[in-house]
């Protein structure tokens, strides 16, 4: 994984930072997510019924399961900031679930740095335009505007920002 400095981040605004590795969303993952969230709707956990009664031809992943994979996709794709002491998920301005993710599908994330701004003495707020691609599908599983905060020691703040 490549590393960058805090001072490099503003120069990356508008650039795609990378594409994650493929992740397979199988039925076991879907079932475990259903158990964790208490969302056992048949389109997620009952393959026979989902095939017979849904337009999807089988079970599909929860949208929030797909969304939750952004954290690991980000960790393995976006360059590490040397001075970072902690990363914080600040939230989303927009999330759109564009296409269902069928059980057994592979997905990967695309990350573009849309904005960054220094806040306070030791924080950098970053906004990413993200999408999760489904292998061999034209439409993405989701698109989102994701906001994170990079914390760092104030002594490491680049001059002039």
Automatic annotation (TrEMBL):
Residue ranges constituting the MaoC-like domain according to the UniProt record: 13-128
Gene3D superfamilies reported for this sequence: Hotdog Thioesterase
Top-level lineage group: Bacteria
Name by which UniProt lists this protein: MaoC family dehydratase
Species, as recorded: Rhizobium deserti
């Amino acid at each position: 994984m490549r590393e960058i400095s805090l001072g490099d981040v503003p120069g990356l605004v508008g650039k795609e930072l990378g594409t994650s590795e493929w992740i397979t969303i199988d039925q076991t993952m879907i079932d475990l997510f259903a158990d964790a969230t208490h969302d056992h709707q048949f389109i997620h956990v009952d393959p026979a019924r989902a095939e017979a009664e849904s337009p999807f031809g089988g079970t599909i992943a929860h949208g929030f399961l797909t969304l939750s994979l952004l954290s690991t996709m980000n960790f393995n794709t976006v360059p590490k900031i040397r001075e970072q002491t902690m990363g914080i998920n600040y939230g989303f301005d927009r999330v759109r679930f564009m296409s269902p993710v069928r059980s057994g599908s592979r997905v990967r994330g695309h990350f573009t740095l849309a904005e960054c701004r220094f806040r306070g003495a030791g924080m950098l707020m970053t906004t990413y335009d993200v999408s999760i691609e489904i292998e061999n599908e034209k439409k993405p599983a989701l698109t989102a505007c994701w906001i994170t905060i990079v914390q760092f020691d104030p002594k490491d703040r680049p001059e002039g920002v």
